[in-house]
Amino acid sequence: MTGSAKATVFIDNERVIVTEYRFQPGDNTGWHRHGHDYVVVPLMDGKLKLKTKDGETFAEMKKGAPYFRKEGVEHDVISANDGEYAFIEIELK
Question: What is the predicted pLDDT for the residue at 35?
């Protein structure tokens, strides 16, 4: 991904990829397509703007409340927060 959010890979093995994404206000992941099913675990409450081929939406994130998405999602994720924001992404290989 080519965005401005800081991505730190903690685990990358034959079964999973675990990455922490840290955003400053307005940072983004860059446009990408998920090649694996994945789970996102927010590390704090916050709001993210999601840009897709169909337009823009906003997602309210709650600390510790995970969500699951299937392989194939294409989007750019942008922080819509006034301060730092972070989540953990767990990709299932």
Answer: 97
